Amino acid sequence: MNPDEPLFDKEDDTNLGRDSEPAIGERIYELLSQQPYGVLCVQGGGQPYGALVAFAFSEDLRHLSFVTPVTTRKYRLLNDCDQVAFVVDSRSTAADGVMEVEAVTATGRSLLIDDEGEFEHWAELLVRRHPYLKSFVKASTCALFRVDIVRFLHVMRFQEVRQWIPNGPS
Fold it and tell me: Which of 20, 35, 44, 157 could potentially form a cystine with 77 if both were Cys, beta carbons 3.0 to 4.6 Å apart?
């Protein structure tokens, strides 16, 4: 499957058919804002691999960033294959069970950030959200990655799935 091909026939940026609910892009932004961690999904040797990471994201929802030590499996797999998925969910804040849980999967490509100016931008964004990562982000034994998001798949009420493609300047 080509990662740039849509999983659905068209982009859906409606209000999910309910006047009292925000548009899907707003729901995704809210979910990402409320959850400090997500699961980075990578692959290697024909096997999937998931890792919990602290993350930050751009205001336009086109990118997210995270940091990892260079000695990890995650780092090695990211260097072997840049196609990733990133999953964030609201389990921890859904008091009344599974019908309240929302989840979003962002698919895209990862990029090791080594350009000084770009590194500073993404490092600052990550440290602003996670101040305890300041020395970790700057450590020579760690690498900063940016994910360029192609699409989001948003799930709510257990089985309602919508696709949303962020647009705007890159």
Answer: 44
For 110, residues 6+ apart whose C-beta sits below 8 A from its C-beta are 42, 78, 82, 83, 84, 145, 146, 147, 148
The string of pLDDT tens digits covering residues 7-25 is 333 344 433 333 334 588 9
Mean pLDDT of 37-58: 95
Residue-wise burial string across 92-105, b where 16 or more C-beta atoms lie within 10 A, e elsewhere: eeeeeeeeebbbbb
**Main-chain phi, psi angles of 20, to 5 degrees:** -85, -5
Query: What 8-state DSSP symbol labels residue 29?
Result: H
Report residue 17 as tokens. 């058919």
Tokens of 13: 């940026």
Q: Count Cβ neighbours within 10 Å for each residue of 140-167 and write b for 16 or more, e otherwise.
A: eebbbbbbebbbbbbbbeeeeebbbbbe
All domains of the chain, ordered by start, with CATH?
24-158 (2.30.110.10)
